[in-house]
């Protein structure tokens, strides 16, 4: 008996300050590689703030990224969380502390207290992950959790495969820039 694949649209957005590692996170998840160049991560720039609402409109899940070695990036995470709570109340929020490898190698480089981050995640009724795009630590776990939560939220789907995952691909249509599919 052939096993069929179920495709479900799930809009997942990444928000966070510039240089927190959003592009590196996606690069690690999609291509399982890490690049030291950071010229791709410009969407956190303040000059794009006015377009952000269009970006996260109708999102099912949002990954709010912050650099655990930069307190200011965590402070900005509060801003993104408030924006989502006000404008997209049905969007699940996942906090993602990036650059965990830097703290693993030198604990004194940590500026964001993990207890404070856990408290914010709790207040948002969300989850928190500390990830390293460099080593890959917890990156797959983050995306699998989003897939698991999203499929659980949908009542009409029925049973799914145990190995839920999100596959990201570039959509070249003018309306959509990225789509996510669960398989």
Which structural traits does this protein have?
single chain, 183 residues, alpha/beta, Rossmann fold, 4-stranded parallel sheet, two-stranded antiparallel sheet, 6 helices, 6 strands, globular, disordered C terminus, Ras-related protein Rab-24, Small_GTPase
Ordered list of secondary-structure elements with their pairings:
Layout: E1 12-16, H1 22-31, H2 49-56, E2 61-67, H3 71-87, E3 92-98, H4 100-105, H5 114-123, E4 127-130, H6 139-153, E5 166-170, E6 178-182
CATH architecture: 3-Layer(aba) Sandwich
Structural class: alpha/beta
- What would the average pLDDT be, to the nearest integer? 80
Strand content: 15-25%
Strand order of the largest sheet: 1-2-3-4
| CATH topology annotation | Rossmann fold
Percent of residues in helical segments?
25-40%
Overall 3D geometry?
globular
The radius of gyration over CA amounts to 16 Å
SSE order: EHHEHEHHEHEE
Number of domains: 1
Q: What separation lies between the terminal Cα atoms? A: 18 Å
What is the number of helices? Answer: 6
